[in-house]
Amino acid sequence: MKTKVLLVVLFLAGILFEVNAQESKNETIALEYIKSHAEEFQINPKHGFKLHFVRKGKAGETLRFQQMLNEVPVFESEFIVNFNNKNEVAFTSNSYKKDIQLIDTSPTVTKEKVIAITDDNLNYNGAVTLQETKLYVYDFDGVTKLVYRTITHAEDLVGSWEVLIDAKTSEVISVKDVSIRCGKECKEDHTHDFVNKVEKKKKKVFSTVEKNNAFAFTTGTAMVFLSDPLSATAVPYGGQYVDGNDATNASLDAARVTVNLPEIEVLSGTYKLKSSYVEIKDIEAPNKGLFTQSTPNFLFNRNQDGFEAANVFYHLDNNMRYINETLGVNCRPYLHSGVLWFDPSGFNGADNSRYSGAGNDLSFGEGCVDDGEDGDVIWHELGHGLHDWMTGGSGLSQVNGLSEGCGDYWAQSNSRSLNQWTPADAAYHWMFNWDGHNECWGGRTTNYGATYPGGLVGGGPHTDGQIWSTTLMKIWDVLGRAKTDTAFLEGLALTNSSTNQNQAAIAVRQAAINMNYSCADVKVMTEKFSAVGYTMPAIPLTINCPGTQTVNADGSGNYVLPSFISLTNAINSNCDATVTQSPAVGTTVGVGSHSITMTANGSVNCNFTLVVEAALGNEGFIKASEILLYPNPASSSITIKGEFDNLEKIQVYNMLGQVVMNGVISGNETTLNVSKLSNGVYTINFLDSNVSVKFVKE
Q: Secretion signal: which residues (predicted)?
């Protein structure tokens, strides 16, 4: 098997620098915006703001400013300013804490003492996998304190344990697990599981330093569930399709499929579930190893622990490739050089799973149905990570169960794309088809009937989050997976740690506007969000022009302007804007570059460049009227016919003037696959003949 050696460290460093760079030419403009709106946001002039995260994405550039008091960060308090792709301030949100009092921010307790107090309170025995201590200004119900916040992970600590200690008095303020837990309603309270141990801890340090070797990746295979055995076979839980204490049988074995693993690590003949996106780790008890082996084929039955390892690895790696490569959305962990760590056998064996923001890692439990066997659980927990990474590690909100709803949406979006259930099946809307909806627990749904805000029960984030996930899936049903997923992710980048569902809906719609979604698409979002009770503000009129258009003059060096209205996207609440063009349709222009202005409702305009090139000779020339293109509109493929003298090069442009496909027509008839294109109007440029033909993808 051919092995490819990748300079992964350099590759990842480049990506993370672009996404997480903490410098921006818009920093001064953004700070001026905050300053000019200080009265509106009730900003105390003695509070400062420091740029701590910059994200450049498909919806523009988003700057996140940390609230500061005497150079000490205020916990979970920031101001977000988003610039659209025209470099205009398009959206802001904030979790600014205006009631922070002016206190002395010089600690009198040392970090060493803080760590000792932390360890005594947690009283763990296993190896430490992560421990960090940072100084913050905290708001405790109107009382401002200077505190040390220590996050500790250890092999025998289930979760991500936060200890807050007063930096002036060394008083322990709180001890709690801050990991985002489970793809289910949590019935067990683990808050004190590992606090009251009586044996003396023997602290060990778990090394996360890797050898500085070039990672060698090759391809492999694995046997997995897509997305679970019930969905794969469209059967209910029961009979042979039960957990059976992790036992396997012929039916469950038959529900597995063989998948390709684009990258797995191979070093000295040893293969490991590690790629440039995902890596297996032993983070929590039970310690079952990393399932390395001497073959690249990870072929296990479900009664083997290696099955969960391979299953989780495949779904995480495949999903991260879909996000970053297919959707083109930069979204990776901000720790571990952008590689997601996961433990397929963690949580001390309990029936629970979690995401940790402090460790940027995932851990899957094993009680009842092993969580690592259900794609919905895997995608749900990944959804928490995506929420965290898109907001730079400071904006993961659980207000109204937002992040739980995000996790459920992300799981359902992936599950629904497999087309395993029909809309007539109850399981079509179910979350956790294999792990839940059985004697293990009740599961959840994305067909939840409650509306916002009256339907919020406040009893737990998982229940309320179903309003958010259900609404997003209603948009998904109309716009499709790629558009909805992209707007969802880019919208999350505009949110903060106190964002509620209504504010998230506005952010997702704004991301779609920034990305120049059609007005019809934006209107669908407005209607679906409004129908469930979210209050959606009116959309200010915007207009987006196509990119540079290049055409050929006639034999006399002239070109008559056609209408460019169909290539122009005017967006307002009712999608009823009137677009005009200057110079007007029918105007004759000569060879050269011309500025075309498109105006909506006589008030808002945009410009693009029309390049008119001199006409070519008659050799190899074919007129647009001589080209036959069908069917038009097309859904999956189009056939192109014409009397082409030679191999004809073509380029397909979208409404923004961006090249989305390249190809060559061989002979006088060619079929072009357009199934992966988004719905809309496209232009095929025949480069050798210098003519263009439009078609509609639906």
A: 1-21
45 exposed, middle or buried (CB, 10 Å; 0-12, 13-18, 19+)? exposed
Cis previous bond, 453, omega within 30: yes
Sign of CA dihedral 336, 342, 343, 348: positive
* pLDDT digit string, tens, across residues 376-389: 999 999 999 999 99
Q: How far apart are CA 350 and CA 369, in angstroms?
A: 11
Q: CA-to-CA distance for 147 and 76, rounded, in angstroms?
A: 13
Q: How far apart are CA 297 and CA 219, in angstroms?
A: 9
User: CB of 390 within 8 A of CB of 485?
Assistant: no
Query: Which value, in Å, is the radius of gyration of the alpha carbons in the chain?
Result: 28
Q: Which residues of 162-172 are buried (b: 16+ CB within 10 A; e: fewer)?
A: bbbbbbeebee
Output the DSSP codes for 651-687. EEE-TTS-EEEEEEE-SSEEEEE-TTSPSEEEEEEET
Tokens of residue 159, six digits: 């979760």
- Identify the weakest region by mean pLDDT among 346-350, 524-528, 666-670: 666-670
* DSSP per position, 447-479: -----TTTT---S-HHHHHHHHHHHHHHHHHHH
Tens-digit pLDDT profile for residues 562-595: 999 999 999 999 999 999 999 999 999 999 999 9
Judge if pTM exceeds 0.70. yes
Q: Which residues contact 353 (CB under 8 A, 6 or more apart)?
A: 181, 182, 183, 346, 347, 362, 363, 364, 365, 371, 377, 381
Which residues have CB under 8 Å from 359's CB, separation 6+?
A: 129, 130, 153, 160, 283, 335, 341
- Cα–Cα dist 572/184, whole Å: 39
Query: What are 437-448's pLDDT values in tens digits?
Result: 999 999 999 999
User: Contact, 275 vs 331, CB < 8 A?
Assistant: no
Alpha carbon distance 663, 213 (integer Å): 40
pLDDT value for 623? 60
The answer, yes or no, to whether residue 508 has pLDDT greater than 70, is yes
Q: pLDDT band at 246, cuts 50/70/90?
A: very high
H/E element holding 307?
Answer: helix 305-321
